[in-house]
């Protein structure tokens, strides 16, 4: 039965059925779907197959930390079971509400990409259901071209059924965090270089600040706390995170230049000292927004698009200012903006490249897409690209320039699915199969 479905950005939304894998597979135009926490249309199709019932842990090697599980296991479930045992995901996105199958399809990155890479570097193998109904076991040595194409392939190679992932040993469930204020963009970029050996680093950035304050930020760097430094008898146990909830869609005028500017001013100045150190539970460090359920409702019924770009490091000190100037010129006000540094990227369709990635939350409003088309050109001019997991409106010719290996990717999915059974709204919009 069809139902109204959208992803986290709430744009676009469609009427379409969601199937379980035990049901008869649709003959065409289906895509695998997890928690729906991508922001655009990559997990939307005329038919969707949910992996949420594939949520079982299958095996765990306590010596090596290798976990075998089904693809519908979420980060939240993994953390709940394995943090108390002293293990942590090697790479995690900014929310726990993502399935591991979806993480592979998006080739997720975290606050440690500059030292640990994307999730691709930590997956040992997976079982993939192709559009022909075959199940392939893929690894760096078995079907390596399919293994490579699946990371960042947005589900177009098939549906991941199960996987093996190498977890990371930890001594405590806490993080030693250092917050450092930066007065402007040049200073925050210098701080990323200064602390490039930090395991985790991320910066909140005020995209509305202009003039000498353009790009003012707060860098947060972190390390897993060592047991000897914590002084607790239960270092792997933390109190449950309390959660607030946005009960309904807020009016679209709630987020405007003045309200966002006021929030940014208060957020920047709430830290009085230039540098602050603290030890905190892992949840608020890695997943601060998970404490506010349904936070996407603050953008109203029309929703928002999350625009995440990456610009190579050599061009970053020119390209990032151009982006901020463009946002300011056209009042593209982003309520939540994040700046991170990437290491080298790998894979046919993986998003990261060595450089700076900026994430913007842009409310859907009149004439927003033509402006974002102009912003795409700035990103392209500096050798950058956009993250397909966040994309809801990129044009096919822009996609082809940003992902120059897309032709090789197209050949692989054509072999896996010659009838074109696997399609998403995104793949149709970007003409990936044509």
Q: Tally the helices: what do you get? A: 13
* Shape, principal axes of CA atoms: globular
Number of strands: 21
* Overall pLDDT level: 95
Biggest sheet: strand arrangement: 16-12-14-13-19-20-18-21
Helix share bin:
25-40%
Largest sheet: 8 strands, antiparallel
Rounded Rg: 21 Å
What share of residues are in beta strands?
25-35%
Describe this structure in words.
The chain is an alpha+beta fold. It has helices at 75-82, 100-106, 113-116, 144-150, 185-194, 227-230, 257-269, 282-286, 313-329, 368-381, 396-402, 406-416, 425-429; strands spanning 2-6, 13-20, 30-33, 47-50, 57-61, 66-70, 87-88, 123-129, 135-138, 159-166, 168-169, 174-182, 200-205, 217-224, 244-245, 275-281, 292-293, 304-312, 337-342, 355-363, 385-386. A hairpin with a 6-residue loop joins strand 1 and strand 2 (13-20). Helix 9 packs antiparallel against helix 10. The model has no long low-confidence stretch (mean pLDDT 95).
In short:
Helices cover 26% and strands 26% of the residues. It contains 13 helices and 21 strands.
Helix and strand topology:
Blueprint: E1 2-6, E2 13-20, E3 30-33, E4 47-50, E5 57-61, E6 66-70, H1 75-82, E7 87-88, H2 100-106, H3 113-116, E8 123-129, E9 135-138, H4 144-150, E10 159-166, E11 168-169, E12 174-182, H5 185-194, E13 200-205, E14 217-224, H6 227-230, E15 244-245, H7 257-269, E16 275-281, H8 282-286, E17 292-293, E18 304-312, H9 313-329, E19 337-342, E20 355-363, H10 368-381, E21 385-386, H11 396-402, H12 406-416, H13 425-429
Parallel strand pairs: 2-4, 3-4, 15-17
Antiparallel strand pairs: 1-2, 5-6, 6-10, 7-11, 8-9, 8-10, 12-14, 12-16, 13-14, 13-19, 18-20, 18-21, 19-20
């Amino acid at each position: 039965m069809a139902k109204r479905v959208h992803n986290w950005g709430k744009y676009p939304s469609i009427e379409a059925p969601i199937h379980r894998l035990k049901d008869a597979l649709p003959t065409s135009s289906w895509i695998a779907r997890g928690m729906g926490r991508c922001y655009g249309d990559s997990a939307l199709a005329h038919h969707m197959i949910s992996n949420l019932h594939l949520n079982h842990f299958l095996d765990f090697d306590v010596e090596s930390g290798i976990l075998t599980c089904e693809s519908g296991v979420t980060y939240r479930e993994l953390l709940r079971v394995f943090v108390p045992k002293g293990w942590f995901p090697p790479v995690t996105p900014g929310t726990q509400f993502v399935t591991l199958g979806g993480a592979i399809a998006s080739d997720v990155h975290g606050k440690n990409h500059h030292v640990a890479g994307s999730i691709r570097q930590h997956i040992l193998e997976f079982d993939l259901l192709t559009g022909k109904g075959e199940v392939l076991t893929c690894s760096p040595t078995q079907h390596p071209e399919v293994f490579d194409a699946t990371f960042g392939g947005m589900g177009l190679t098939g549906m991941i059924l199960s996987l093996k992932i190498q977890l990371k040993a930890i001594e405590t469930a806490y993080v030693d965090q250092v917050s450092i204020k930066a007065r402007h963009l040049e200073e925050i970029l210098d701080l990323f270089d200064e602390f490039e050996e930090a395991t985790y680093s991320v910066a909140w950035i005020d995209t509305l600040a202009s003039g000498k304050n353009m790009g003012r930020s707060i860098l947060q760097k972190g390390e897993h706390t060592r047991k000897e430094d914590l002084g607790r008898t239960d270092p792997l146990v933390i109190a449950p995170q309390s959660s607030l909830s946005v009960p309904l869609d807020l009016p679209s005028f709630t987020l405007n230049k003045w309200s966002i500017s006021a929030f940014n001013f208060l957020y920047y100045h709430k830290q009085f000292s230039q540098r602050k150190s603290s030890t905190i539970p892992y949840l608020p460090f890695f997943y601060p927004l998970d404490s506010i359920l349904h936070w996407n409702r603050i953008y109203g019924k029309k929703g928002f698009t999350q625009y995440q770009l990456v610009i190579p490091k050599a061009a970053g000190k020119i390209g990032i200012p151009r982006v901020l100037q463009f946002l300011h010129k056209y009042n593209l006000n982003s309520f939540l903006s994040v700046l991170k540094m990437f290491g080298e990227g790998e894979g046919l369709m993986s998003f990261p490249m060595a450089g700076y990635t900026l994430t913007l939350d842009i409310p859907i409003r009149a004439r927003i897409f033509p402006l974002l088309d102009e912003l795409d050109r700035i990103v392209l001019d500096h050798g950058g690209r956009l993250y397909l997991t966040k994309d809801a409106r990129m044009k096919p010719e822009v996609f082809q320039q940003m992902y120059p290996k897309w032709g090789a990717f197209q050949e692989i999915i054509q072999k896996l699915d010659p009838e074109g059974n696997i399609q998403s709204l995104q793949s149709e919009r970007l003409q990936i199969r044509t």
